[in-house]
Write a structure and sequence with these properties.
The chain has 132 residues and is mainly alpha-helical. The protein has one domain. Helix content is 74%, strand content 0%. It is built from 5 helices and no strands. α1 crosses α5 and α2 runs parallel beside α4. The longest helix has 26 residues. 19% of the residues are buried.
């Protein structure tokens, strides 16, 4: 379970970096970066809460439906807010939103690198040069 919390922290760091970069370079799209990251981190925390106790199929299905409803609502909010501003602004808004929504996936990828996650002793297989 500790791994899941480390992934959350890495995703939060990515979200902060994304928000800062968006604030500096694309100030008009800051809301979408923060909103996408917030939805992804909220869904991740719900997943932790659901899987912490006894896992039932009802709880899992409810969580998955709730997760995708959140994503659809956020995508609809971006659409209705940017539809009159032009196609390019809408596309940029969706790109920034998706960069925020993948924050947990980035956290998983960064956590899987050897810099963060050290291999356990039983996972390390020593190389024997005589046995080739």
């Amino acid at each position: 379970m500790k791994d899941v919390y480390v992934i959350s922290i890495i995703a939060l760091i990515y979200s902060v970096i994304l928000a800062l970069v968006t604030l500096i370079f694309f100030n008009d799209y800051l809301l979408w970066a923060v909103l996408g990251s917030a939805v992804a981190l909220f869904n991740h925390s719900l997943m932790i809460q659901v899987t912490k106790n006894k896992l039932t199929s009802y709880k899992l299905v409810t969580h998955l439906i709730q997760r995708y409803i959140f994503y659809i609502v956020i995508i609809a909010i971006v659409y209705f807010d940017t539809r009159t501003l032009g196609t390019q602004i809408m596309i940029n808004s969706y790109i920034i939103l998706l960069l925020g929504m993948i924050s947990v996936k980035i956290g998983v990828l960064v956590y899987a690198t050897p810099l963060i996650k050290k291999p356990k002793e039983e996972e390390v297989i020593p190389h024997d040069p005589d046995n080739t």
